[in-house]
Amino acid sequence: MAKKRAKVGFVGLGLMGTPMATNLVKAGFPLQVWNRAADKAEALAAIGATRTVTATDAARGADFVIVMVADDAALDSVLFGESGLSRGLKRGAVLVNCSTTSPAMSYRAATALRSISVRYLEAPVMRSVQAAREGKLQMLIGGSREDFAKAEAVLRIMASDIHYIGEIGKATTMKITLNLLAAAMAQGYAEFFVLARKTGIPFETMMEVLHVSPVDSQLFRSAEQTVVNPGGRPNFYLKHLLKDVNLAMDLAKQMEVPVPLTAGVRQMLVAAKNLGRGDEDFGTMLELMAQWAGVPLRG
What we know:
Elements: E1 8-11, H1 17-26, E2 31-34, H2 42-46, E3 50-51, H3 55-59, E4 64-67, H4 72-80, E5 94-97, H5 103-114, E6 119-122, E7 125-126, H6 129-134, E8 137-142, H7 145-158, E9 159-166, H8 170-198, H9 203-211, H10 218-228, H11 238-255, H12 260-274, H13 283-293
Parallel strand pairs: 1-2, 1-4, 2-3, 4-5, 5-6, 8-9
Antiparallel strand pairs: 7-8
Helix pairs in contact: 8-11, 8-12, 8-13, 10-13, 11-12
């Protein structure tokens, strides 16, 4: 007799959440989904997911509940607000937070859920929307190894590379610091581009040299698409990168660690958001730098 699949709830069907949830349905997990904007659940309902009226309903009877929302406030609301997940979670369920939130929020969520006999894992993810579609995300785990072992079969459907980082707070800290690095790299690429471009070096030559240099990276190759393939869908909203950089700045302040480069990059992100470009990705930083430097992005 085939082993019965665990029932899974999924809340938060944005850029990353939708393909993650889609892979769970395709893998045969009974999935009940909820999103604040209800229309985003329609595609999942069409392939077999159960669309629920509230987050509470998405949690009812589920062995595992995956959450993929924007920030601390959204997580707090979806967990503990009116019609929140905590009202429907059963004893022994494992709540997996794939959002990038603060360590403090993880501590609070884990403590509150423990009081109702629900386990908590933080599992922020890395990589692109395409990686989410392919089930090849990178996932960082914080929490108990026992809870991770319980949830691993579900998590492996969404992520090809999973790293156990340590106790609650450690995985979110790792993700925040990685995004700090990504923001600095995006700004560095933009400055490399405009300075080389201003001197008249052809774009093709710049890329030829970069791609075989010691500093090449997948992030730089993604930034290149801003030039060669304009108008593509964002992989990661700029406003969310700013949120993560703010979390890194807060953490650095708490730990009394100087982060002068991050402080400068934050100014670029704030400027881009204030120009109404928060729903674009980090390619916007390149476009703004090109505009301010007076160099063409293309041609």
